[in-house]
Amino acid sequence: MQDQDQDLKFEKAVKSKLKLRLAIIGPSGSGKTFSSLLLASGLSKKIALLDTERGSAKKYADLFKFSVLEMENYHPDNFIEAIRSADDQKFDLLIIDSLSHAWNGHNGALELVDKAAARLKTTSSFAAWREVTPLHNRMIDAILRSDLHIIVTMRVKTEYSLEKTESGKKMVRKVGLQPIQREGLEYEFDIVGDMDMTSTMVITKTRCPALQQSVIQKPGNELAKTILKWLNSGEPVKKKIVSAGNKRERERLIKSIKIKMEELNEKNFITAKKLSEFGDKIKDPKTDVGILKLVEKQLLLIDRLDQIKGNISQQERKNFYRKILATNTQGVKALENKLKIMEAA
Fold first, then answer.
1. Same domain, 36 and 164
2. Is residue 222 located within the same domain as residue 279?
3. Which of 10, 207, 265, 266 is the most exposed place for a label (fewest CB within 10 A)?
4. Which residues form the domain of 102?
5. Could you tell me which of 343, 250, 242 has the C-alpha nearest to residue 296?
6. Given pLDDT bands bounded at 50, 70 and 90, which one contains residue 3?
């Protein structure tokens, strides 16, 4: 049976003030970066931009005021750390330009799958995706849970079509197809705008009623005003009240995790990177009890794996270690059963 930490009680639905989740999708040259900065400037004064486009955003530094972080390693965990950094530095809004590199860039999801498949010595991408999907999901969760306004850009696969102009002449036009990211990812956002080569934005998905079926030429301050009005309408966000029992359980979990981390660190049976990641989770007040329970179980499983002597090869041990780190709550039971078999062998 799964852990149950949520109070399953229906309450009256109330519109609360929101943080922006906007995705701008378009081919290269459609104006995604410029439009993001223009919109951001109308929404906030403290803007951070995560640049995966080899410094292209700095070309607009004379037009907009913003801080930039240039990234060359597109591992999902690096995007998570960048989001945390922007939050820690008290920015109001973060632009991720572009999120496509987390998919097909250096150490992005597709490259991680190839590496996992090679390491596991398998031709099945399914086994490799079991390792990578939790990493990618964790990155998306960090975007959706952040207290920042977030605008992401995504490239699209492009084609060229031959079209006739009004005068009858033929011309080649660049058109965008699917965004370069996990299929369906764009629907995680509250507002999605598709840009074409004329810098026209077509709103293809929105939870803001005023933007339904909108087509916007060179989106800028007017669009920012409409979005800001929608974001600020509603009740202030209420902080969740943590019950005394839940607080005690949280404190118990954090203490247990710290002890187990220290033990595993002394044995050198857990990587420094993973220790740091677990440490960040227990420090973050937004990490809920369910996640802490999962971390505790992962550390207990790693400890049990360490105590199995001589029955498995070093490669089998490494593979199982990675499975533990990649698991979710639903996968813990299967790993526990597998460990029992290994312990009994």
1. yes
2. no
3. 10
4. 21-232
5. 250
6. very low
pTM of the model: 0.69
Burial of 64 (0-12, 13-18, 19+ CB in 10 A): middle
Q: Is the pLDDT score of 4 beyond 50?
A: no
In three-state secondary structure terms, 333 is helix
DSSP string, 216-245: EES--HHHHHHHHHHHHSSBPPPPPPPPHH
Q: Is 104 exposed, middle or buried (0-12, 13-18, 19+ CB in 10 A)?
A: middle
DSSP 28-97: TTSSHHHHHHHHHHHH-SSEEEEE-STTGGGGGTTTS--EEEE-S---HHHHHHHHHHHHHTT-SEEEEE
Same domain, 223 and 98: yes
Residue type, 155: R
Q: Coil, helix or strand for 184?
A: coil
**Cα angle 88-270-272, degrees, rounded to a multiple of 5:** 40
